Amino acid sequence: MTVAIVWFRRDLRVHDNPLLAAAQRYDEVLPLFIIDEKITEGRRASAARNRFIAGCLEDLDLALRRLRSRLLVLCGEPAHQLRAIASDLRVEAVLWSGDVSPYSRARDRRVHAALRELGVRAIEHPPNHVVDVGQIETGAAKPYQMHSPFHRRSLTMPRRPLLPAPRRLPPPPDLAGLSVLRQHPRLLLETLVRHPPSPHPLATPAEPPAPIAQPGETAARRALSRWLSSGLHRYAHGSQTLAEGATSRLSPHLRFGCLSALELEQRALQHPHPSAQAWVRQLSWRDFFAHVLLHSPGNLSLEHQAQLRGMEWEEHPERLVAWQQGITGFPIVDAAMRQLARTGWMPNRARLIVGSFLTKDLQIDWRQGEEWFSRLLLDGDPAQNNGNWQWIASVGTDPAPVARRLYNPTLQSQRHDPDGLYIRRWVPELSAVPLSALHQPSQMSECQQRRSGCWIGRDYPAPIVDHPTQRALALERYRRSLPPPPLEAASPPRPR
Ligand code: FAD
Question: What is the pLDDT of residues 5-15, one digit of tens each?
Answer without folding.
Answer: 999 999 999 99
